[in-house]
Amino acid sequence: MMTVDVDVIVVGGGCAGVAAACCIAESGRSVMLCDQAPSLGGAIHRKVAEECGALLVSKDLITGWRDLKSRLDQQSDHVEIRVSTIFVGLDSTGVAVIKDHITNSAQYVAPKAMVFATGAYENIKPVPGWHYPGVTTAGALQVHMKSAGTPPKGKVLLAGSGPLLLAIAAQLTVLGNAPVAVVESARPLLKSRHWLGLPLPFFREAFSYVTTLWARRVPWICGADVELIERTEKGLAVTVSNGKREVNYDVDIVGLHNGLRENNIGLPAENLDPADGVLVVHAGDCHAVLGARAASQSGSVAAGRLLTAMGDPHAELSCSPALESHTQSQAKLAAIFSPVRPLSLENLPDETILCRCEQKSIGDLREMLVTRGVSAREIKLNGRFGMGRCQGRFCGKWVLDLLDEINGEPRKMEELSGRRWPVRPISIGSLTGLGQQQDVRKLTQTQSGD
Amino acid sequence: MKHFLYWRDRKIAFVPGEMLAYTLFRECRGGAGFGKSLGGQTQGLFCGIGACQGCLVTLEGRGSVESCLTPARDGMRVQPIQELTDGPSTTESCNDDS
Question: Of A402, A415, B28, B92, which sits most exposed with the smallest number of CB within 10 A?
């Protein structure tokens, strides 16, 4: 294998990444566009089974994606598309390591700049029993529907908060496996003032989801939370409470979701100064969660910032549409779906698993926090929170929240997770393959004058 | 035409175009999940986007992979990284209706 010569690597082939790739390619630069999935599209437009495509993605979004794809097709001379390709890391010499997921082979690329458009991932509030098989993120159930064209088998309960939860509930219903209930932490229907300020497409989408659920008599239980998930002979027993009354459900699958967050843990920080090495920008939901309708604009804005830093004087003007209205819409959605009871770990029993990877409980963390002034780094190294396979993606926020509650000191995620590569596991086999490229790597460094 | 792969040496059907994790999720959605990791944690579908590493399985000829990023293919042979030694029996917890 040879080191690939490319101006910009774009990691993530959803709307934001493709828009960024188009802007950069249109400026005459070469782009390598990588995505971990077998096809471009990201969370929204990933390969959707034909029989249900129109049911799972809004029409306005499909049109937008089609336009982006044809723009990308016109740049085929400048853009090399790599699917099933995972970004592993950017080392201190400015060499990026990517891995072909299918062949398990790693490759070195020496780019001038990188765009991270890795989208969002789901916040999941820990509850006792959330680590059992059969408990997934609600988003994973949506991927199931999109890729298989059928809903997951068995009785499903959805719980948490946010518009995505409602969307997935409606999609399960339309595909013939309506959830036994949707448990929503907020009371969204009481927030009419915020609803009225939302742009029409949001309003239309929400209305269609709610009416779908009403038509099939799917209970939408607002102002309630899952308290406990237990394993039984038959599946999972879920206790739901609104603070006054408890209801129990026997199900096979629990889909949890408490909103979205930037999928940027461990990624290189933004850098717009060529003196500090490879230029890096974050785009789309990876930069700030503004949703699908803002993603391509956000990708263009990021590309504009990058091209300006690369010395293109007109770049920022040519691809910088405003994002303010999307920021406002997201703030309104957050207000509509703000939980009745705060998402605190305070009332969870000690034995609740907090770190799924290392099976560390809230009790383990509380014990560590008895020592005042314990640092995020100590919590990671001694307590193993954030140390496991997911690198704190799922426990990190909650560990830091609890640390803040007890010590009164807000901490940044990177104090726990760090910004080291590999950001994703890579096998010894792939690394052995890398070893063969040492000469090429030295050559690259010499050429770049390091 | 139906498509099949092998999970724990048993033939199971999959939908063309879907990721392996979803084929396995239909088979083993509860109980034993997808077996257990080298660290001893029960494996299973969780995030579906390669972030949690909870759905790692062993793919013959390839080693451990995130099943949520691996397209299901005809004749693919897939095993848990390790079988669970405690908890519910693996055969009982699978939904044997494929």
Answer: B92
User: Could you say which DSSP state residue A287 is in?
Assistant: T
Contact residues, chain B, for A132 at CB < 8 Å: 30, 42
Instruction: Find, in chain B, the residue whose alpha carbon is nearest to that of A131.
Output: B42
Q: In what order do the strands lie in the sheet with A96-100?
A: A85-90, A96-100, A105-109
Per-residue pLDDT, A122: 97
Q: What was the ipTM of the complex prediction?
A: 0.91
Residue B39: is its pLDDT beyond 90? no
Contact yes or no for B54 and A153 at CB 8 A: no
B44: distance to nearest CA of chain A, Å?
A: 5
Q: Do A345 and A360 meet the contact criterion of CB atoms below 8 Å apart?
A: no
Which residue from B21, B29, B54 is facing A252, i.e. has the nearest CB? B29
Query: Is B89 in the A-facing interface, judged by CB distances under 8 Å?
Result: no
Bridge-partner residues for A113, per DSSP?
A: A8, A279
Distance, in angstroms, between A95 CA and closest chain B CA? 23
Per-residue pLDDT tens digits for A326-373: 999 999 999 999 999 888 888 899 999 999 999 999 999 999 988 777
Using left for φ > 0, alpha for ψ between -120 and 50, and beta otherwise, residue A70 falls in alpha
Q: Which residue positions in chain A have pLDDT lower than 50?
A: 1, 435-450
As given in the structure block, the two tokens for residue A10 are 């774009």
Q: Any idea where the domains of chain B sit in the sequence? A: 3-93
Out of B37, B46, B62, the one facing A140 most closely (by C-beta) is B46
Whole-number pLDDT of residue B34: 92
Res B84 pLDDT > 80 = no
Phi and psi for A240 in degrees, rounded to 5? -115, 140
Question: B54 and A356 in contact (C-beta within 8 Å)?
Answer: yes
Nearest residue on chain B to A83, alpha-carbon basis: B69
Alpha-carbon distances, residue A279 vs A16, A111, A295, A336, B25 (angstroms): 18, 9, 21, 37, 40
Burial of A244 (0-12, 13-18, 19+ CB in 10 A): exposed
Fold of B3-93: Ubiquitin-like (UB roll) (3.10.20)
In this structure, how many other beta carbons lie within 10 angstroms of the beta carbon of residue A425?
15
At A139, which helix (H) or strand (E)?
Answer: helix A138-148
If pLDDT is split at 50, 70 and 90, which confidence band does B50 have? Answer: very high
